[in-house]
Design brief:
With about 120 residues, the chain is mainly α. It folds into two domains: about 1-85, Winged helix-like DNA-binding domain superfamily/Winged helix DNA-binding domain (Arc Repressor Mutant, subunit A, Orthogonal Bundle); about 90-120. Helix content is about 60%, strand content about 10%. The chain is built from six helices and three strands; from the N terminus they run H-H-E-H-H-E-E-H-H. Strand 2 (about 65-70) and strand 3 (about 75-80) form a beta hairpin.
């Protein structure tokens, strides 16, 4: 059965996980496991406290990330992928590989264009 372009399931998937910071957050949680907020903030350079909080809340709302608060002073909060979120593992791994191949391809294309310009073609 062919996919119905008017009900693009790829778009639904990407809406849940794509954003400037979401993929980095997900990759850290996937490869490193449970992390505290400060560890995530350090692991994702350039992200602000507010933006990290917003992204984690969105991922929580999708059931991909879980937040665990420990009743301590000061409060200890940890984030990890849910069982459902861990199902993204193979997808993230393949996207990571594809991204690496794509970057290489773009570099090769840029080098080829520079060579053509230098040769005057």
């Amino acid at each position: 059965m062919r996919p119905d372009p008017t009900r693009c399931e790829v778009a639904a998937a990407l809406d849940a996980i794509v954003g400037k910071w979401k993929t980095q957050i997900l990759l850290h949680l996937f490869f490193e496991g449970t992390m505290r907020f400060g560890e995530l903030r350090t692991a994702v350079p350039g992200i602000t406290h507010k933006v990290l909080t917003e992204n984690l809340r969105e991922l929580e709302a999708h059931g991909i990330v879980e937040r665990r608060v420990y009743p301590e002073v000061p409060p200890k909060v940890e984030y990890s992928l849910t069982e459902y979120g861990r199902t993204l593992g193979p997808v993230l791994r393949e996207l990571h590989k594809w991204g690496a191949r794509h970057r290489r391809r773009l570099r090769e294309m840029a080098e080829q264009r520079r060579g053509e310009v230098a040769a005057g073609t």
